[in-house]
Amino acid sequence: MTAAETSTAPAVASPKPTKTKAKKTSAKPKAAKGEHPSHPPYASMIKKAISELKEKKGSSKAAILKYISKNYGIPDRLVFQVN
């Protein structure tokens, strides 16, 4: 090697690529704050259903779900997802 090759030359900084942050988009639009469902919480609906059905040995899950869908206008596809 020659003296010119071994001498320390100032390091040339390679230009760093600028990072741009991409906005994350969610697949589902989120509900705006302040929007509340038109029905009471499920716990209170279930308590009301049990008290209104007045069965001696207790109410079945199917009977409770039927009562909720009938009286609160919740579609069956949403009610039957509750375990």
Automatic annotation (TrEMBL):
Residues 18-31 have a biased composition (Basic residues). InterPro entries: Histone_H1/H5_H15, WH-like_DNA-bd_sf, WH_DNA-bd_sf. It is found in: Chromosome; Nucleus. CDD domains: H15. It comes from the Eukaryota. Residues 38-83 form the H15 domain. SMART domains: H15. It holds the Pfam family Linker_histone. Keywords: Chromosome, DNA-binding, Nucleus. GO terms for cellular component: nucleosome; nucleus. Residues 1-43 are annotated as: Disordered. Residues 1-17 have a biased composition (Low complexity). PANTHER family: HISTONE 24-RELATED (PTHR11467:SF36), HISTONE H1 (PTHR11467). This is H15 domain-containing protein.
